Amino acid sequence: MLKAGDKIPHFDGVDQDGKKINVTDYRGKKLIIFFYPRASTPGCTAEACSLRDYYQSLQDQNYELLGVSADSPERQKKFRENYRLPFLLLADEGKEVIRAFEAWGSKKFLGKSYEGILRKTFIIDEKGYISRIIDNVKTKDHALQIMKQQ
User: Fold this and answer.
1) Which residue of the set 23, 32, 33, 44 is catalytic?
2) Res 114: pLDDT
3) CATH code assigned at 75
4) Which of 39, 73, 74, 78 has the fewest CB atoms nearer than 10 Å to its CB?
């Protein structure tokens, strides 16, 4: 089970444009990685737009942002363009990064249990260690939720 103080798992994949992304791209930078179930759905859109609206404030605190879902690069690109998201979106269709960060698990909706992507956010320091994990994401106020506990 990942927890604060752990080194983040190695990851690589492709972004919304099909460009390769690797954990080493963020070496020496503070990073916010947020996992969301599906691009362009109401909750995911609210979360991404909250981060978009406070993007400059987060950058002023030296954070890079990376969103991750199992959507295709094409769907991620459309999501990014439609909502003018200034950060990269990783298209983790094989769910390797999602599973490595333990953002896959049992969920409930309308009384039914199923497996899916858990809405989770990892705050990572410049050395690649987890500073904080947010499991209880408030989609509409997610950026404030992140900044409040810095």
Assistant:
1) 44
2) 87
3) 3.40.30.10
4) 74
- Cα–Cα dist 5/41, whole Å: 32
Residues 148 and 62 sit within 8 Å (Cβ to Cβ): no
User: 58-72, pLDDT tens digit by residue?
Assistant: 999 999 999 999 999
* 44 has catalytic annotation: yes
| Position 1 in a domain | no
Domain contains 104: yes
Total domains, the chain: 1
pLDDT beneath 70: ranges in the chain: 149-150
